[in-house]
């Protein structure tokens, strides 16, 4: 299909808004970063079997929070994963199952055998997203510590979000130097993490530097600081994503981001650095998830305005993905 001038002008302005690398970057660089995300997306063919495009696990879901793991898990499927597992507490499981028949739900997180119960699934999972709706119960966090250690031992990529970041702020050594980890803190989580790791009050005058320093202090773990602009760093490079989103700040948008990122991390690592042109695959995956989440927010807000909720954004994942990465 021939794309018209208007399409390219619109795409160009999206790219301009969406990308900057350490403040200095050319238009070519901007186009390239979206192109790098496109490069990691596996083609849809008739030759694949179920599971090949992603088997993602979400660790979270407790008495108080059932929406967060649902949003993360359903977003992973909508981005293009084949199977999405949720490992949650016993009482959260029937609730999460009832939201969607598409999710595989394991009521194991508060069992005495939680670590073994999750560990036996690890060889079949491509990435874990740890934290959405986990809560801060000491017993659950002890189990999650064991799950993280088992994931590292098996080289499983992990995205750590929400209450998973509470655990990392308490015990940064758990993730120190693990090259297949991405942390996705919001405003409060970033402050907590940064002050715990760097043992200094957060310098709010230098948002790029603050993310760079945290990533370096954690041994080049990739950090995505969400906010008005998302700042992403692997301790070597800094990317900023300011794709147009919306002014709605309803809960759950970060869960959509972390679930999407679980899939993109798997795709990026599978594609390898030759497809990401010298950028770390995890940086490219993170840029993809940030721009996708913000585009979902933008599209949902255009339809629903102030009443926009995360469910409306989930419905936009397919169209937003196609618009950003497949047009
Ligand atoms: N439907 C659900 O089940 C949801 C559950 N959630 C879960 O709720 C738990 C707690 O997550 P929270 O994100 O509330 O974490 P926290 O309990 O650390 O709270 C963060 C606080 O920071 C404030 N804040 C956020 N952005 C700010 C900014 N820019 N400036 C100043 N203050 C700011 C928020 O109002 C909130 O009070 C997690 O397990 C999370 O996954 C959320 O994901 C939202 C949806
Ligand atoms: N002020 C803002 N303007 C535009 N987009 C924003 C703003 N703050 C956050 N976002 C976007 O909203 C999404 C979620 O970020 P947020 O900081 O709300 O995460 P969160 O608090 O973890 O969400 P959740 O409620 O799922 O836990 C990200 O894509 C981020 O880019
Ligand atoms: Mg969150």
TrEMBL record:
For the keyword Lyase, the answer is yes
Q: What is its EC number?
A: 4.2.1.93
Sequence ranges assigned to domain YjeF C-terminal in this UniProt record? 33-324
Alphabetized GO MF terms:
ATP binding; ATP-dependent NAD(P)H-hydrate dehydratase activity
Q: Mainly localized where?
A: mitochondrion
Which domain of life does this protein belong to? Eukaryota
Query: Which residues of the sequence carry a binding annotation for ATP?
Result: 226-230, 245-254
Listed A to Z, the keywords are: ATP-binding, Lyase, Mitochondrion, NAD, NADP, Nucleotide-binding, Phosphoprotein
Q: Which InterPro entries match?
A: CARKD (IPR000631), Ribokinase-like (IPR029056)
Can you tell me which residues bind (6S)-NADPHX? 133, 186-192, 255
- Record's Gene Ontology CC terms? mitochondrion
Return the broad EC class. Answer: lyase
Q: Which NCBIfam families does the protein's record reference?
A: yjeF_cterm
Which protein is depicted?
ATP-dependent (S)-NAD(P)H-hydrate dehydratase
Q: Which organism does this record belong to?
A: Equus caballus
The protein's gene is named NAXD
């Amino acid at each position: 299909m021939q794309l018209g001038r208007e399409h390219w002008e619109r795409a160009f302005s999206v790219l301009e808004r969406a990308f900057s690398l350490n403040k200095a970057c050319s238009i070519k660089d901007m186009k390239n970063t979206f192109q790098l995300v496109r490069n990691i997306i596996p083609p849809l063919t008739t030759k694949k079997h179920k599971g090949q495009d992603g088997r993602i696990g979400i660790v979270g879901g407790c008495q108080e929070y059932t929406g967060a793991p649902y949003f993360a898990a359903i977003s992973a499927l909508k981005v293009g994963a084949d199977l999405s597992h949720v490992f949650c507490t016993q009482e959260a499981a029937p609730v999460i199952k009832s939201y969607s028949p598409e999710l595989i739900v394991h009521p194991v997180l508060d069992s005495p055998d939680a670590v073994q119960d999750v560990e036996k699934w690890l060889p079949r999972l491509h990435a874990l997203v740890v934290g959405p709706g986990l809560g801060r119960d000491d017993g659950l966090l002890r189990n999650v510590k064991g799950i993280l250690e088992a994931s590292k031992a098996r080289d499983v990529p992990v995205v750590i979000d929400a209450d998973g970041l509470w655990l990392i702020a308490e015990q940064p050594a758990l993730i120190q130097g693990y090259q297949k980890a991405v942390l996705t803190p919001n405003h409060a989580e970033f402050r907590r993490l940064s002050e715990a790791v760097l043992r200094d009050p957060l310098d709010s005058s230098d948002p790029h530097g603050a993310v760079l320093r945290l990533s370096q202090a954690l041994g080049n773990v990739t950090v995505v600081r969400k906010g008005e602009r998302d700042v992403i760093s692997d301790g070597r490079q800094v990317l900023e994503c300011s794709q147009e989103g919306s002014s709605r700040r309803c809960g759950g948008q970060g869960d959509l981001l972390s679930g999407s990122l679980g899939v993109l991390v798997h795709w990026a690592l599978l594609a390898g650095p030759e497809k990401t042109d010298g950028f770390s695959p995890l940086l490219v995956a993170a840029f993809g998830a940030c721009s996708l989440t913000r585009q979902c927010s933008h599209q949902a807000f255009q339809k629903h305005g102030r009443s926009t909720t995360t469910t409306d954004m989930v419905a936009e994942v397919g169209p937003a993905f196609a618009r950003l990465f497949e047009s």
